[in-house]
# Entry
Amino acid sequence: MRLIGFLLMPALLGACGGDREKTVLEFWAMGQEGEVVQSLMPEFERLHPELQVKVQQIPWSAAHEKLLTAYAGDAMPDVFQLGNTWIPEFVVLKAVDSLDNRLTAQQREDYFEGIIETNEIDGRLHGLPWYVDTRLLFYRTDILVKAGFSAPPKTWNEWLAAMAAIAALPGGDRYALLLPMNEWQVPVILALQMGSELLRDEARFGNFRSDAFRQAFRFYLDIFRRGYAPAVSEAQIANLYQEFASGYFAMYVTGPWNIVEFEHRLPKSMQGRWATAPMPAPDESYPGVSLAGGASLAIARSSSRKDQAWKLIEFLSEPEQQLAFYRLTGDLPARRSAWLHPDLATAARTQAFKTQLERVVSTPKIPEWERIASKIAHHTEKAVRGELTEEQALAALDKDVDRILEKRRWLLRKRAP
Amino acid sequence: MKTPLLPANTAFWFLAPALILIVVFFFLPVAASLLLSFTDFDIYALGDHERLRFVALDNYLRLLGDPLFWTALKNTLYFVLVGGPLSVAVSLGAALLVNHRLVRFKGLFRSLLFLPVVTTLVAIAVVWRYLYHPRYGFLNYLLGLLGLDTVDWLGDPDWAMPAIILMAIWKNFGFNMIIFIAGLQSIPVRLYEAAVIDGASTWRQFRHITLPMLAPTFVFVTVITMIGYFQLFAEPYVMTQGGPANSTLSVALLMFQEGFRWWNLGYAAAVAFTLFLIILTGTVLQLRLRRREI
# Structure
């Protein structure tokens, strides 16, 4: 019964309010973004006096559930934010409208290629990137210098050499790299760098025992086996910032939100001693690729105000608004022209992200991806803990993923003549 | 109760509105979800019902092979077996204290101890999250005063479940306490008077009068508590989302996540019916055991 109450509440809340004179656009945005974006709305409403935007803020932890429930209950907003890995799901549901005829080719050019690509499914654009995120190397410059490296590593070999040198430094309980072992991102990034397809035969089967994935996986496990990274999960790291400041680890692969966090939470004395750098590559093709992450804006197919909804998306995508949003949240703009502004162009730590964003690739664009990613995290953790050998972990992963994809295979078979 | 029964026909018409409501809003949904548990209803089927397949017992077989289900079951049993008895013990203790003849303002204490039961769980969770906060939390402040190491209550996989249990007991014991008080008040005073004349100590009075006389209340309270605790959901949903490292993932939370995070409604329905069977078995076993004892 309590469950039902949870589900009904948003529907009841969403049903009231409204203004007779103006067209009301309902806009759902998540977390901090949902809170901050409200301050951009007066400007939009000034430019479009006939429109009024009702922003509803949804916590990230409930966002996915709420969007799906809204779809099932036919209560979708006009415009909504969605993580770009969710797009395939909403395309399968036919819940989002195509933006192909709305975005001009010139506008499209301005977006990071790898990022906008995540929004394209079967050649059609279904969402417009709002802000972007990817992962790269955060590191302690002073520790790297002490270990004999004046620049961040550019290849896997250099990376290993730097880790070995840091591990050999005196000072007891310290590690070169922090890799929370229950996260799927780093093993997947390494595999993508090796050119692994992750899934094979049009994503019908897992492809984790392929050479490319296996080599990346071995490299990842080696970092633990050689003692360069502590075998801890995210929850066991009590205070990331304290540990980074104390030198417990010297490198960490993480995302743009941590620039703001590190600037605020590391002690003052630490501020000149850390930097960011794009990912090392397995060969000489520096920088190595990373994940194309971030969030997009989409128009619900059920909306009766699609043209007005597009106006809102267009407004939020203007370089000036992207900059304003960056200043408010620290979220990185999805359009290259916004990056020309001195605020971004002169921030060295942020510029590393610019370089990286030119080299990002999408994870498989199928609705099952998030489940598959959670399986990768699960089996990788077991391999790191030594509960499974490398071979067993990869075989188990293939088996689990093949089962998740069973329905997809059936649908593809059915569609084929 | 002594009035003669109305003819069956008339009774039926008086009951009909309530029965219809129960059928429409309870039996039909239950039957529908039982059917659902034999299908692979998922995100694809939600978009287009052509993509729905009948899979017979496949969901149930998969469930038995799913390590996550066993983790959830283990966590739920931990919560039931540790939290349940503790909760009953705390309720009984509180009932004995509040009901003691030396206590004044009984009504006031009863109300105060009952307050958490009627407070919204989400509000309670917000306050308890502060209490459990690793750096600013009151509990860690106390541990610090005692010179003990602080605990990351909701962040450490070993401590998260005890933290949830502690909060759940604090929230729920008041309800059982009221039932125990009612049970205690129905024990005839003459039994205690006779025991005192025979020279029985307080402990022996408790052991040989209070406990046996409370037996029916005990059965009721333990069964209700067990059923409620097996359905552990809101506490971890609000406090930890099942984490860290799935250490507070309960069966009901797993069902919710499968159903509403991954939208595997067929599989989630199978989880629900499995949980129902487990609770049913637990209840029957408990009633059997008690009956033998009595």
